[in-house]
Design a protein that fits this description.
mainly alpha, 3 helices, 45% helix, globular
Length: 42
């Protein structure tokens, strides 16, 4: 396994769909707001 440094943080859709969402809880953001970022809706 290796490590690749990315220019911006990314996540897989499966991690955002998990209930309860660990990402939404750790960022203290609503899931709907994070979904727009995951799906690249501007």
């Amino acid at each position: 396994m290796g490590y690749i440094k990315l220019a911006c943080p990314v996540t897989h859709v499966w991690f955002s769909k998990r209930v309860p969402s660990y990402i939404a809880n750790s960022l203290a953001k609503p899931l709907k707001e994070l979904e727009s970022l995951v799906y690249c809706d501007a």
